[in-house]
Amino acid sequence: MNGAGNDFVVLDNRTRSLSLDGAAIARLCDRHRGIGADGLLAVEPADGAADFRMRYYNSDGGEAEMCGNGARCFARFAARLMPEKPLSVSFETQAGLITAALEGELVALEMGRPQDYRAGQSLTLGDSKHQVHFLNTGVPHAVVFVPDVEKIDVMALGSALRRHDAFSPKGTNANFAQVLAPDSLVLRTYERGVEGETLACGTGVCATALLHSVESGASSPIHVRVRGGDTLRVDFQRNPDGSFASARLTGPADFVFEGTISL
User: Fold this and answer.
1) What are phi and psi of 171, to 5 degrees?
2) Which pLDDT value is given to residue 242?
3) Residue 189: pLDDT above 90?
């Protein structure tokens, strides 16, 4: 499946009969020797009252707390496993409970409450200093607003930001955003765990839109165009103290192909 170009291997593991280690997941995600994907999603039974549990692994085989584009794909895949076509799906993640509304080929995610906002701090990346903002939208995201994203060396600067001491020991995802209009951004993302630029990052879209709102005063909704060409929508509500009460991410989730593979 893919969500705005962010692609995933998705497995039905409700019986928990599949036991994949990091090396096996990395092989499945290898674009030359496996299926090829930015990450792997597994549908498992929920521990609580949710419909399912989502397990998400980056292409390096490491498990991550959350993935916005992956969660939309997970919701559409999980809905096909249910006896009747649902209007929404709820699932547990390491970042908390997620609810997804199904709107045809679009999925709207009620994201968990954003946390750990850090105002712009001046950090040295390569040979220059940049104002870096930070927000956790299920996974950590550092965001740099730039005049022109096409002139950014995402691999070099993204790698430096992802591993910067300011975000040790776990590191962060790195985002570079250009403001086109008060409600419109274009975004490029270097993803931790993929260790490269991806065509989209849902949690990065959400973090960048919310940080843009904080810095500029822009109101909801905000539209963000990602590297793959799709535009995702972020709706949000603010508390009286300025913190975020809620965030909703809407975008595509597409089935690409189904098959079997020998492990």
Assistant:
1) 80, -175
2) 79
3) yes
In this structure, the chain runs to a length of 263
86 contacts: CB under 8 Å, gap ≥ 6 = 51, 79, 102
Cα 85 to its chain centre, rounded Å, is 25
Tokens describing residue 100 = 């997804």
- What is the value of pTM for the model shown? 0.90
- CATH number corresponding to 2-111: 3.10.310.10
Mutual orientation of helices 68-80 and 202-216 as an angle, nearest 10°?
130
Torsion angles phi and psi, residue 212, rounded to 5: -60, -40
Cite the active site residues. Answer: 67, 201
Cα–Cα distance measured from residue 161 to residue 145, given in angstroms and rounded to the nearest whole number:
13
Domains in the chain: boundaries: 2-111, 115-251
Q: Which run of H or E residues covers position 213?
A: helix 202-216
Burial classification of residue 104, based on how many CB atoms lie within 10 Å of its CB (0-12 exposed, 13-18 middle, 19 or more buried) = exposed
Query: Under CATH, what is the fold of the domain 115-251?
Result: Diaminopimelate Epimerase; Chain A, domain 1 (3.10.310)
Structure tokens at 224: 């963000």
